[in-house]
């Protein structure tokens, strides 16, 4: 980005000189090409969503992944659309935009616009709450209804640290995920167990999904840039 700013400054400086001295034409076009190259190679972010029943730990997962913190009690992230985090996959820099439902799931008022443009979706349930696992099926239907048919899905059983209160066996959930051919992991936002890995795995899937879209400079060509609206940077 710094390089782009410098190139822009030099571009305008040479543009002014060009008007005064035609010899600056050469530099003018060199910087123009440099700017176009950098704009072209800039990576659009991946839009990832966290969905699932209320209280399964979606906001906690977001905070653990982006800020490496855990807050006891319900996490209130109203006024927040998403958080961004940069990760590296196969030596490629990838910017993730992770969107949280901000509590609308309680009233089933998540609109189709939430799903629009999503590249990956993590469906979260609580391993200590049977109802949240039963509802995974309903969340999958929501995805089917609103998200793109090429979206990458992942199943996550959260609160792995509460193993003594577990009611959903690992093998039950794994079997369900295998049936849908989607990855599955158990995480704990409290301890951080498998949180990074979950996002890494989903991003791998998204990159694989877009494998046919690699540009000449090894940057994946993605759908149009997601509008930056109100998110917070990690
Ligand atoms: N023990 C434990 N509690 C968690 C974990 N993740 C979230 N919680 C708790 O579960 C409750 C709901 O979390 P929250 O992130 O607000 O859930 P959301 O409604 O799905 O966004 C809060 O009391 C959290 O502290 C976890 O991994 N382990
Ligand atoms: Mg929440």
Give a nutshell description of this structure.
With 234 residues, the chain is α/β, with parallel strands linked by helices. The protein has helices spanning 2-20, 25-41, 58-67, 112-115, 130-134, 136-146, 170-180, 195-209; strands spanning 46-52, 82-89, 92-99, 120-126, 152-158, 184-186, 232-233.
Molecular structure report:
It is a single chain. The protein has 234 residues and is α/β, with parallel strands linked by helices. It is 39% helix and 18% strand. The chain is built from 8 helices and 7 strands, in the order ααβαββαβααβαβαβ. A 7-stranded mixed β-sheet has the order 6-5-4-1-3-2-7, with helices on both faces. α7 (170-180) links the parallel β5 (152-158) and β6 (184-186). The chain starts with a helix and ends with a strand. Residues 214-221 and 223-230 have low confidence and may be disordered. The site of guanosine-5'-diphosphate has 18 residues, from α3. The site of magnesium ion has 6 residues, from α3.
Topology, please?
Layout: H1 2-20, H2 25-41, E1 46-52, H3 58-67, E2 82-89, E3 92-99, H4 112-115, E4 120-126, H5 130-134, H6 136-146, E5 152-158, H7 170-180, E6 184-186, H8 195-209, E7 232-233
Parallel strand pairs: 1-3, 1-4, 2-7, 4-5, 5-6
Antiparallel strand pairs: 2-3
């Amino acid at each position: 980005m710094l390089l782009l700013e410098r190139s822009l400054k030099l571009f305008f400086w040479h543009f002014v000189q060009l008007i005064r001295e035609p010899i600056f034409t050469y530099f003018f076009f060199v910087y123009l090409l440099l700017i176009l190259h950098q704009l072209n190679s800039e990576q659009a972010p991946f839009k990832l969503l966290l969905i699932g029943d209320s209280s399964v730990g979606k906001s906690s997962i977001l905070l653990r992944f982006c800020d490496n913190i855990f807050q006891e009690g319900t996490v209130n992230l109203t006024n927040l659309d998403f958080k961004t985090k940069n990760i590296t996959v196969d030596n490629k820099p990838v910017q993730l935009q992770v969107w949280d439902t901000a509590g609308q799931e309680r009233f089933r008022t998540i609109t189709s616009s939430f799903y629009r443009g999503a590249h990956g979706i993590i469906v979260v349930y609580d391993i200590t709450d049977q109802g949240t696992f039963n509802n995974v099926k309903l969340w999958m239907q929501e995805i089917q209804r609103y998200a793109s048919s090429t979206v990458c899905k992942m199943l996550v059983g959260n609160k792995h640290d509460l193993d003594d209160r577990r009611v959903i066996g690992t093998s039950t959930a794994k079997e369900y995920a295998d049936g849908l051919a989607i990855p599955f992991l158990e995480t704990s936002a409290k301890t951080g167990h498998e949180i990074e890995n979950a996002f890494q795995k989903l991003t791998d899937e998204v990159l694989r999904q877009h494998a046919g879209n690699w540009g000449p400079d090894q940057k994946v060509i993605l759908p149009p840039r997601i509008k930056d609206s109100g998110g917070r940077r990690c």
